[in-house]
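RECORD TYPE: protein structure
NAME: NADH dehydrogenase subunit 1
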Amino acid sequence: MGGLVILFPIITVLVGLYLITLGLWELREGVNRKQYIKYMFTGLFLLVILTPMVWLLGSSLLI
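PREDICTED:
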């Protein structure tokens, strides 16, 4: 359980950065703006909201 608490936030950060990169690439191509918005907001949600929540919940579970 302790390893999962450390591994899950790292995975969410990596997936969030990947989605933001895909969003920027989609914006560069300029083909589908809805896809850009979907990638960007999902990636930002993973980075800004989900990762700190997982860190806080995980640290409270380890105590």
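COMMENT: The chain is about 90% helix and 0% strand.
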